[in-house]
Task: structure prediction
Amino acid sequence: MDLRYDDEKHLYWIDGNLVPGVTTLLRARNQPWLMPWGIKMTSEAVREAWTPDTPFTREEIDGIIRAAKSAHRKKSDKGKSSGTTVHDLIQKFWAEEVPDEPEGLDEGEMNSWKAFLAFVKDYKPSPLHVEHVVGSAKHRYAGKVDFIGHLNGDREIPWTNDYKTSTVLGEDVKLQTAGYRNAFSEMGGGETRRGAVHLPKTGAPYYFWDIEALGEYEFDLSCFLALKTVHMWDTHQQTLKQEAKHGKSA
Result:
């Protein structure tokens, strides 16, 4: 299998063909919490911009509303940027290129970083692969695993771990790590155990989730592959719409 990855564009190819990434496939799952969260971000943006007992022109009101409509995207982009910063630091940590207290971090990023150092102290992880690109030739998808290695000196079966800096550690990580484990195994990496490390930006302590202890790998993998089918269907519908659009304009 010829597996290639473009780090800038976050795109994967298997044998010359573009394939979806693991996190892209997870978006096919219903996320009912998104709408309430988006509404909350909008209302908070309006509350912050709207000064009590202050007259606003129609143009100013329209500007507040426009800004509020995109508040959820700004919040999401900021969270992704913060998560990327922490992931980059962790990668440099394993390469011994970063001090224990790096400069230039905001409060949330520093909290996640300190949580990671506490996890390292307690679990003594020993990496085999860091930010490792894996792919499934059979199911045509790929992804990048945060950590594959051993914990606490246990050298029997390595762990496939993902780091999360989100406010809440969601169930999606079960499907995500199932996809990673399957792809790594297909590539001849052998059996791994699944885990997730929550590194909250709030200052709360880290949490290590032993997903493997649930004993649901096969079920999680089947659900992950079902998302691949849904993604294929969605992509096909978009193709049909584009073909119809171009057909009408021709």
